[in-house]
Amino acid sequence: MNKRKITAILLIASLVLAINACKKDPAEEAPSNLPYVLSYGAFPDPELPADNPLTTEGVKLGRMLFYEKMLSRTNTQSCASCHMQQFAFTDTATLSLGVKGLKGKRQAMSVFNMAWHTNEFFWDGRAHLLRDQSLMPIQDELEMDEKLDNVISKLQASPLYPKQFKRAFGTETVTADLLSKALEQFMMTIVSNSSKYDDYLAGKATLTPEEERGRYLFFTEYNPGFPAISGADCQHCHSGANFENDLYMNNGLDKDVDIADIGREKVTGDPADRAKFKVPSLRNVALTAPYMHDGRFKTLEEVVNHYNLVENSGTLDPSFQQQLPGGLLLSEADKAALVAFLKTLTDKKLVSNPEYSSPF
Predict the structure, then answer these.
(1) Model's pTM, two decimal places?
(2) Which residues of 183-198 are buried (b: 16+ CB within 10 A; e: fewer)?
(3) Is residue 117 domain-shared with residue 247, that is, in the same domain?
(4) Least buried of 1, 11, 126, 259, by fewest C-beta within 10 Å?
């Protein structure tokens, strides 16, 4: 081979090396931000926000933020501190403790199947959208007690988050709006639809006689004229795939003189909303004790006893008023059957799904 050919080959090789050197290392390139495919089985299609479509990188960022303790003033508490996966994303404390050691005002609500909640958020509905809800505990002095400006500064200064905001939203600039949208995306993906009852509906499981009796009582209307076939009418408030009705109701916890928390009335200013609270899902209810907005009941047995004979008040829902003065007249066996049925709503996959666990 003559010198001219050798020189030409070396020149071409040098050009190839130069071109390759200008290319980005694939490991450094941001991954493609694809649409996130939400799996929800036999559930009805959810009403997802059009201005915040679910994406793989948006959901990933939201998951990181859900477990991020920098959202709190002391960098010691995250959303997950009060919404723990092993308890269906709620807290076992009657009232959660914030970073100052102070108790919150109400029992922490569960965070799952949020995509099917279309009527405000929190027990009193003070947050219109899920993204609005996501920022409120951060700023609440009884909870995370932090200012949004401080949160943004901490996240912006970290080596991790600007890059992930870039992948998720196309900008390394952290803002409160994008923070809330990322949290909304992740919470929208937490789906619970794999209980024994779901398997029963799909023909994959059989209920025990006691569970079947509880199912009958749960879905059958109260009928005092025919006590032998009368039910507990639970489905009036806890219906549909998510076992809730997206309404605010007074469920007979207190008499008028004993009402300490006016609930929905504080948001609407309407006295007709006094002592009304958001009806929660009964899915995973065996994991989410204590119960009610103030966590007053420690067991499902206490809950069933309450509904067997509620307290009357001015805003008590009509479905409960028709049961007075004698109540449902449930036998002890019927109460036990209702508890047994409620336990079939437990989703063991939810509490162990690695897609919902801490990414750190």
Answers:
(1) 0.90
(2) bbbbbbbbbbbebbbb
(3) no
(4) 1
